[in-house]
User: Which sequence fits this backbone?
């Protein structure tokens, strides 16, 4: 596969980069880089569910700029993270889905952590940052990589009776200390307290609220089942969708199983409970930072890897191009740059994270990274912003989001268009309205002209359920 933007590094180049920049490193801020797996807009600030309780995420958001119209580059763990960390879109790398191996491309690309390491940062990674690569532990990618922590709940299965692998939820009779993300937080706080001559890039990848939604019972008790509200939905929502969209919604899959098993309210409870557990860990991490010598001078970049459906459009999980699947949590605090407690409504996507982190870090942005930096918006969240957000799910399927509209085009030419000004839940597909042809044409300009084929899987099997 030809990758014109590929940056191949030699150890000599790395060494010279390192020594050239090590002396400057003391002027570069520490960066706490927090990834969250599968968190959609169910936070107080984004308002995705009225019962979501995220006081600690709120506390973090109060320190900086929160993007309310931020979107992943791909609605699945592997391609979303590969795009964010490489600065390259799925149609540039061929990493479109969880089944497309990212190892080869990532190991030949100047990823964000590799770049910061080469620029003199102490790059530490723990939990889930990428979607599981053997190369994560390599000396030229991280100063130190600790990976996933063992967690309670490993021997639990099929609590909800649906018998669909880890599409499962229920309370654990376990201690919070036994959860992997609790141990990850402990590790991260420990790192924040270690002195280092080099600036710190500390990447903390939380695994929750990814499935299965097993967290200690106390978190479920925060959301009594008899008070649970379902997300807003319309029974006839699929009636105005083209065939490619209905196929992506797959109503006969998870949704049919959830309804058949009477699990919808319990699923909502499980997701809310797991978000609440995650939020507690964010709180512990913030407290740990505030008590550390790095308090007050550390930039914080927090992102979730994509959204999540819980029955809207009879769809579950990510793997789709609607607002619930592509909208993410993105909040950035950079001392001396970001105003406190500020919302930015500009449409942004995750190709902007790499160049933004480079600017915050005071290092150059590699030439292969083409996404626009968010720095103008961090300095002034109402600054002019001419860009749109683009999300890709499989070759040929894309969603374009601007401040008002979402335009979806599938590989077979099927289309959807939603006007968020009058229809924030995307119930009315107005793609066939002739008055809006100009809107479609304008948004279609963001679609790629060329898309590379998916990375060959070399006979490797996809994950058990294709879901990670
Ligand atoms: Ca994910
Ligand atoms: Ca509809």
Assistant:
């Amino acid at each position: 596969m030809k990758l014109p933007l590929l940056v191949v590094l030699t150890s000599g180049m790395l060494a010279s980069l390192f020594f050239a920049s090590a002396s400057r490193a003391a002027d570069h801020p520490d960066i706490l880089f927090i990834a969250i797996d599968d968190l959609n807009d169910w936070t107080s600030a984004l308002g995705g569910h009225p019962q979501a309780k995220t006081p600690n995420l709120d506390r973090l958001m109060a320190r900086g700029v929160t993007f309310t119209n931020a979107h992943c580059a791909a609605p699945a763990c592997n391609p979303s993270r590969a795009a964010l960390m490489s600065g390259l879109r799925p149609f540039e790398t061929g990493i479109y889905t969880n089944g497309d191996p990212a190892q080869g491309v990532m190991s030949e690309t100047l990823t964000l952590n590799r770049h910061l390491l080469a620029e003199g940062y102490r790059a530490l990674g723990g939990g889930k940052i990428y979607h599981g690569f053997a190369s994560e532990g390599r000396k030229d990618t991280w100063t130190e990589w600790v990976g996933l922590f063992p967690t309670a709940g490993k021997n639990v299965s099929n609590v909800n009776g649906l018998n669909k692998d880890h599409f499962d939820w229920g309370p654990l009779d376990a201690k919070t200390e036994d959860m992997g993300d609790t141990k990850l937080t402990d590790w991260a706080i420990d790192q924040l307290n270690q002195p280092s001559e080099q600036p710190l890039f500390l990447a903390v990848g939380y695994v929750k609220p990814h499935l299965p939604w097993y967290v200690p019972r106390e978190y479920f008790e925060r959301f009594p089942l008899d008070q649970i509200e379902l997300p807003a939905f319309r029974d006839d929502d699929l009636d105005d969708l083209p065939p490619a969209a209905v196929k992506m919604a797959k109503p006969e899959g998870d949704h049919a199983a959830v309804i058949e098993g009477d699990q919808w309210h319990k699923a909502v409870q499980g997701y809310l409970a797991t978000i609440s557990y995650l939020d507690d860990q964010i709180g512990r991490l913030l407290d740990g930072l505030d008590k550390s010598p790095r308090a007050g001078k550390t930039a914080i970049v927090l992102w979730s890897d994509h959204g999540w459906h819980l029955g809207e459009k009879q769809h579950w999980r990510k793997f789709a191009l609607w607002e619930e699947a592509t909208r993410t949590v993105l909040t950035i605090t950079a001392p001396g740059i970001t105003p406190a407690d500020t919302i930015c409504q500009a449409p942004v996507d995750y190709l902007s994270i790499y160049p933004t982190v480079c600017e915050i870090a005071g290092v150059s942005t590699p030439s292969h990274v083409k996404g626009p930096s968010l720095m103008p918006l961090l300095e002034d969240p109402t600054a002019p912003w001419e860009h749109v957000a683009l999300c890709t799910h499989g070759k040929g399927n894309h969603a374009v989001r601007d401040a008002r509209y979402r335009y979806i085009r599938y590989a077979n030419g099927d289309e959807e268009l939603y006007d968020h000004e009058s229809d924030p839940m995307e119930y009315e597909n107005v793609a066939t309205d002739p008055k809006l042809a100009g809107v479609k044409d304008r948004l279609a300009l963001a679609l790629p002209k060329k898309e590379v084929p998916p990375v060959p899987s070399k006979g490797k099997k996809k994950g058990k359920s294709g879901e990670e």
